[in-house]
Design goal:
Layout lengths: L1 E6 L2 E4 L4 E9 L6 E7 L6 E6 L6 E3 L7 E6 L4 E6 L8 E9 L2 E4 L3 E6 L1
Parallel strand pairs: 2-11
Antiparallel strand pairs: 1-3, 3-8, 4-5, 4-9, 5-6, 7-8, 9-10, 9-11
Length: 116
């Protein structure tokens, strides 16, 4: 079992930055592929970024490449999403996801609102 708790969301102006954190409570955090997804009102949940267990590989959806950076600290059981050059279309609830073997866990999400 892994519990995920996101934080760091808020209201920011276009062009601003936010750093999201996802703290995990449970065992074997270092084995999990960690990801960030987002869901805007009336839209489907979409993939944003992911990072492998060692942090050696990262993946991004095209719309955030060059602006967002995903990282992790396995000693702290935490994954981060540094979001720069934010745009109004980045407004959404951002959710943390953990996957390992048959295990798949989600956090409750944190709201990010980018004003124009």
């Amino acid at each position: 079992q892994l519990q995920l708790h996101e934080s760091g969301g808020g209201l920011v102006q276009t062009g601003g930055s936010l750093r999201l954190s996802c703290a995990a409570l449970g065992r074997n955090f270092g084995r999990y592929l960690m990801g960030w997804f987002r869901q805007a009102p009336g839209r489907e949940r979409e993939f944003v970024a992911a990072i492998t267990w060692s942090g050696s590989s990262t993946y991004y959806t095209d719309s955030v490449k060059g602006r967002f950076i995903i990282s992790r600290d396995n000693a702290k059981s935490t994954v981060y999403l540094q979001m720069n050059s934010l745009k109004p279309e980045d407004t959404a609830v951002y959710l943390c996801n953990a996957v390992w073997l048959m295990n798949n866990y989600w956090g409750q999400g944190t709201q990010v609102t980018v004003s124009s």
